[in-house]
Amino acid sequence: MSSSVESRPEVPEGYLGQQPKFAEFKLECISHTNAEFTIPNDNEVEIKIRTSGPIKSTANLIQVRTEKEFPEYVFTQTQGDIVSFVISFPEHGWYKFQIFALPASDESKSLPNVINYLIEVKRALKAVYPFAKQYAPWREGCYLYSPLILNSSSRLHTVNFKVLVPRAKDVAIVAAGEWTHLTKTSGDVWEGKATLDQHRNKNVKVTLNARFGDDESKYATLLEWVV
């Protein structure tokens, strides 16, 4: 696509950057200290924030021109004390990116806004695909090494899964009732291969599931793809 010709959007005073709760929760910007930045030759970015303790978080990507929200193009994951937000931008132009967070120990259902970014994407040359749907248990310290993208256009004959799931007693991939249990390789990392080619273009849900308790019938869904 050609370079953006959109002018910089107006944002309310105090909207950009860290909000009061950011300091209160002892959060720290690791990758992008400036709340407004330009991506000149790519349409993907990873924003990293360091936390002082376990948090639950969510994020919102908004295309300024259309005011359309693109939650499916944001993938949130955690590695140690770093929460990362991988963002794919479907088109060039200006975007608002909002992060909401709360200490994991807080029982409140409402997550306050902690920081806001204004991002200009000059060129959107790469095709983008939705990330996996992320369920609440995923946000409790999990990290996906592979595959970051999984859909009907992916190589599905043998899919290599590698994921970090703290405190899990078992982790499995489920597709159309077929279970593939992953193997714990080191620490909280689980790995395995699943054959999904038979489900291509059938709108089959592929889920990553984990068992945290002793009840062998109770698994929580962490991620969900559709092939």
From TrEMBL:
Q: Which stretches make up the KY-like immunoglobulin-like domain?
A: 12-131
Q: Which domain of life is it from?
A: Eukaryota
| InterPro entries given in the database record | Ig-like_KY, Transglut-like_Superfamily_Mod
Q: Pfam families, per this entry? A: Ig-like_KY (PF23265)
Put simply, this protein is called: KY-like immunoglobulin-like domain-containing protein
**Organism whose genome encodes this protein:** Pomacea canaliculata
